Amino acid sequence: MKSSKTSRWGMCMKTAGLVLLLAAVPAFGASAQQSYGAYADSKTFLEQGQHGEAAQKAAKKEKKVAVIIDDFGNGQGGTQEMLSLPIKLTVAIMPFLPTTQTDAELAHQKGYDVIVHMPMEPKHGNPKWLGPGAITSKMSDEEVRRKVEEAIDNVPHAIGMNNHMGSKITGDERIMSIVLQVCRERGLFFVDSKTNYHSVVGKLAANMGMPPVANHIFLDDSHTVSHIAKQMKAVEAYALEHDNCITIGHVGTQGKKTAEVLKNVAPKMQEHVSFVGISDLVRDIWGWQPSPILPSNNN
Ligand SMILES: [Zn+2]
């Protein structure tokens, strides 16, 4: 550790105190504090993160951004970079893939939220991109239920679910009713990734007393650093106007770029918004209290 960093840290301890520094990251619960030591070594987190006046201002405004990163579980590009970011993420992990378990364990240790990234049939697109355990439109009610249960069982620490692809399935009331039902039984909420503008998920969720959580902005539908940076500006603007913003990015061919942009823009954004997990938003906005009626291994 360089002396300038030490003195900055010392000054911060004196003026703001460790308690305030921790309080400036309101989304990080007990598990994050356990791994706080890892973050204390992070130059960006300490030197550019929220403290002092900026933290107080951000806490007062309570503008919150939940960054969901999709497509974990297959060792895709940017996995390590994402799992090292010093802001709270929500990590959406596909079931039955080579790094499903390890990604979930690492993300949980880091204090990130873990959700199941459930493969669902799209209207268009290569069926090979779906991955194992996908829900397709021809399945019976029983098959759909079993697929959802098996996926939840396969992703440790999952507290919610969102859809991988799924432009066809998220418009299917029969199937989505079953998906939401199983999620509710297992204490999970469902985030509509909004791959289909005619999705029925929000309406169904509201009817079932579940939070109608949905993606607001895709981060990296175009794979350039400048586009992703522009999207992050849009995320900040959306959060400032609406008090919160849910955004979805990806690991994969563009994963390293997305992680790089997040790392670079986060410190500045933290002067105005807080990065929270998706569970923090569903609790704060919709008062969601999971009430599983079936045993779960995802605690
Ligand atoms: Zn996906």
Automatic annotation (TrEMBL):
Q: Where is the signal peptide?
A: 1-29
Q: Tell me the keywords, alphabetical order.
A: Signal
Q: Which SUPFAM superfamilies match?
A: Glycoside hydrolase/deacetylase
Q: Which domain of life is it from?
A: Bacteria
| Gene3D superfamilies reported in the protein's UniProt record | Glycoside hydrolase/deacetylase
PANTHER family recorded for this chain? DIVERGENT POLYSACCHARIDE DEACETYLASE SUPERFAMILY, UNCHARACTERIZED YIBQ-RELATED
Q: What is this protein called?
A: Divergent polysaccharide deacetylase family protein
Organism of origin: Paenibacillus cookii
